Amino acid sequence: MLKNYIKIAWRNIWNNKLFSFINVISLAIGFSASFVIGLMVYYDFTFDKFHKDGDRIYRATTQFISPEGTDHFNGVNALLADALKQDVSGLENVSAFYTYRPLKVEVESRDLVFKKPNHVIFTDSDYFKVIDYNWLAGNKATSLLEPNEVVLTQQRAESYFPNTPVENLIGKILMYNDSIPAKITGVVANFEERSDFVFQEFISLPTALQSDLKSMVTNTIWDSYNSDAQVLFKTLPGVAGNTIQEQLDNLSKSRADKDDLADGEWSRFYAQPLEELHFDTRYGTFDYSVPQASKKVLLNLGIVALFLLLLGSINFINLTTAQATQRAREIGIRKTLGSSKKQLIFQFLGETFLLTLLSALVSVVLAFWLLRVFAGFIPSGLNFGLFANPWIITAMLVLLVVVTLLSGMYPAFVLSGFKPVSVLKNRLSSQTSATGFRKGLTVFQFVVAQVFIIGTLLVGKQIDYLMHKDIGVNTANIAYVKLPWNDAAITKKKLLKNKLATIPELSTISLGGAPPASMYINSNLVEFSKDGETIEVLQEQRFGDATYFDLYGLELLAGRKPINDTIKEYVINETMLHKLGFTAPEEAVGQQLLMGSKSYPIVGVMRDFNEKPLNSDIQPVVFVGDIYRDWFSQFNMLHFKIEPKTQDLAGTLEKVEDIWKSVYPDSDFEIQFMDETVANFYRSQQRTQKLLNWATGLAILISALGLLALVIYTTERRIKEIGIRKVLGASLMELQVLLCKDFLKLIAIAFVIAAPIAYWRMHIWLEDFAYKTEMSWWVFALSGIGMVVLALAIMSFKTLRTAMRNPVKSLRTE
Amino acid sequence: MLLQLNHIYKWVKQGGKRVFLLNDISLDVEEGEFISIMGPSGSGKSTLLNVIGMLDEFQEGEYIFDGEPVHSLKEKQRAKLYKEYIGFVFQAYHLIDELTVYENIETPLLYKNIKSSERKALVADMLDRFNIVGKKDLFPAQLSGGQQQLVGIARALIAKPKLILADEPTGNLNSKQGEEIMELFKELNTEGVTIIQATHSESNAAYGNRIIHLLDGSKQLQPQN
């Protein structure tokens, strides 16, 4: 029986090559999107699921609670670990660790230097009691107790000591930053499964006192939080998370300032369960170099996949029911031969399954390709090998069955419901209800495609707007290099500046901090007294020398710039001006800003510029010189303009690098361009745009294929009518209108439904931006017209040929 | 008795009036009979065959098949009944285009859940008997009309039905092919299969041992003119 069904199914698929092709391609697109997105979901939901006692492991994070809302912070203070051990009951182990970025590590025995090793932490031996590792050499009981000890992962050990048995590594010395020696006391295996605990080198905590982290590790101020300071702990068995959190709350409150607490302001330590670590973007993971997984992104991707699958299923339903009359005879015969309705339903579902299976096979190839296209969205650890995972395979099979039922159920019921007598006598009714249903599905398809089109256009328009809006800062031909932070001598920086001035292609060279518009944050709180009232303002600081203004085209509205690089004089922006309660720039000049007990003058007012991406409004910004030079120079970048006429850009940059090497022979030269910096603000939006472009393209493709098939089918059925009309004198144009009219009506209905949906969805998306492009009517009009033109083009492919056919032929063949 | 029709009425509404397709038809059929139903186009021959074949319903009357009251059976039981006992032969052959000769003949056995080995034997016998072994892998479109009808009859016989309903079985065939088919029916009848055929042709009707004349859905006692 089964063999018979498969045979018939296969022959049907084979005989209707065009329709089968359209069905397979439409479904395969939906499948491949689903597979890839399913892989991503599986990948991201299987992080850190393998740890021993994983449900008892927590990470401490910080919440800054105030009446205005809660800010979330991934680090803690240096005192928390000890406080937990003393004041919180129910904990089995507490471990503090500090993320560390050494500039280099030297493998003494091999005389090799590795620059900037990543994933290095200072930690205590309790770390290995909280997070269980498999020890390949050494042991967790005796490791990391003394200063100058280090434990490596197998992977790191292999890169430092290739082809050396791990036992032989014990006792070998690593030298960090030329000054901190560490003896290897253990090697642990890397996790075989996915984990956010990415660390590769564990240096004993006391060693941190020899490093530049000393001040952080020994900091005894409770309210000093640092993102590098981390605490992990493990509860005793049977201790609920909320009892720990209660104790943490009490601890946090007992250390809070009483007045602040009364005002509802306090810093709360939050026990973040291990299972929240991977997705909670408020606190991040330990690895900043890769974007964190986001449930929202996964959900949006899932919705895209769902729509693509639905569109494919709709094509299938439409084409199968449209072709029903061709299958009707077979159904009638089978019924007279004794087939029950149930058997027929199974036959058609089987046929659908075969087609679905075929699509799935095609989609595996497509998925392989999609994984490349969407590399920007996909974590690098996700690869094609996951397809062999039994969970994934099971999920794929379930999806196959679901799609089979979704696409096959309705056609199966329609087809199996035919009455054999009517079918065999060619008295098949014209199936008006099914036609209405098909029209509904077609409208749905075009609604989806139309929403995608409008969305794509508006996202494109917004990104174009973001990229080209005047942010009040010069970006063309400006480049900057980061100066080595461990070589803070200002004389060297000035030397570099002076040497660069000899390159004729460079003009307006400036020493300063971050560029005016950048992601760097350097803000502090100032007070301002006016009319007996004190206003607190959080001001973002931009540091620069006298030429910084000219270079970036910043504009003074009143007053002057600071007289020299180190004097504490402030130039405030207009937003700050208004925040302080002034309207005219001149009013602010000469006023004093209060920091602690000291006050500093405002000497000038500058025009507002967008110091952050256009997602946010302009905040209070002040321009100052290198006011903290005595403590730590803030002039950590060198900015310059390259003459626009410069022919040989690469040559010029080479000259810059040569001079850099002569001043800082040991440091890496990294140049960044201002226009790229600004463009990079919108990288995530550009990724969204890319994804949306693809989704739109695929949605259009599926819908267009479906439309094409329906047009072919309906037009074929009207050949006789067209022949008669032609004989009666209808023109080509009139016939064209006749054939396309019905479909255009559906597209019009779809547009009416799609436009408000798209408007609403895009309105939500644009709310993320302080600066929004207009949702112009012409975008909607354009996408509507585009759809009509596309549909006409598809339809004309078939209708024109039909309309031009010689009527004598079509009438004779009847 | 194989089947019994008692006062069967079947009508459709047209402009508020009843148009009778079958008008008070009563008919007893004994096992082993060969009945020819004659009448002009639209006289209700096919309708009567469809009613007997349980493919079509009627509004009034009783229909008893092999002791079972068909008129009060559920769809499922009815399907079981005709699957078991009735084979159909059509004027337009109605073979499944996508299946080969072999597969077409095999299909009714599939619906009766007969085992594969047994199916093979049965189909092989049938091919042999009708002398179409050489054609078993051809598709219907590759056969002549007479050959297609042979396959149609083979398919109708494969499930060993008690009753064969043939609706104008020779209507699409030339006279020589038609005669061969009628000879075959005669032969089957002598082997014990009950046959009811609808036909236009006097000569074909003569193969039967009883002739029923229909006009406008009513049974005529005597042939017209």
Automatic annotation (TrEMBL), chain A:
GO biological process, one term: cell division
GO molecular function list: transmembrane transporter activity
Location of the protein in the cell: Cell membrane
UniProt membrane topology term: Multi-pass membrane protein
Keyword Cytoplasm among UniProt keywords: no
TM region(s), chain numbering: 21-43, 297-319, 344-371, 391-418, 439-459, 691-713, 743-762, 777-797
Domain MacB-like periplasmic core positions: 20-250, 448-625
Every ABC3 transporter permease C-terminal domain range: 303-417, 697-803
Top-level taxonomic group: Bacteria
Keyword flag Coiled coil: no
Pfam families to which the protein is assigned, alphabetical: FtsX (PF02687), MacB_PCD (PF12704)
Assigned GO CC terms: plasma membrane
Primary location group: membrane
Sorted UniProt keywords: Cell cycle, Cell division, Cell membrane, Membrane, Transmembrane, Transmembrane helix
PANTHER family: ABC-TYPE MACROLIDE FAMILY EXPORT SYSTEM PERMEASE COMPONENT 2, MEMBRANE COMPONENT OF TRANSPORTER-RELATED
Name the record gives this protein: Cell division protein FtsX
Organism: Leeuwenhoekiella nanhaiensis
TrEMBL record, chain B:
Keyword Flavoprotein: no
Domain ABC transporter: 3-225
GO molecular function: ATP binding; ATP hydrolysis activity; transmembrane transporter activity
InterPro entries from the UniProt entry: AAA+_ATPase, ABC_transporter-like_ATP-bd, ABC_transporter-like_CS, MacB-like_ATP-bd, P-loop_NTPase
Organism: Leeuwenhoekiella nanhaiensis
Pfam family, any one: ABC_tran
Signal peptide segment: none
Top-rank lineage group of the source organism: Bacteria
CDD domains in alphabetical order: ABC_MJ0796_LolCDE_FtsE
PROSITE patterns reported in the protein's UniProt record: ABC_TRANSPORTER_1, ABC_TRANSPORTER_2
Protein's name according to its UniProt entry: Phosphonate ABC transporter ATP-binding protein
GO CC terms in record: membrane protein complex
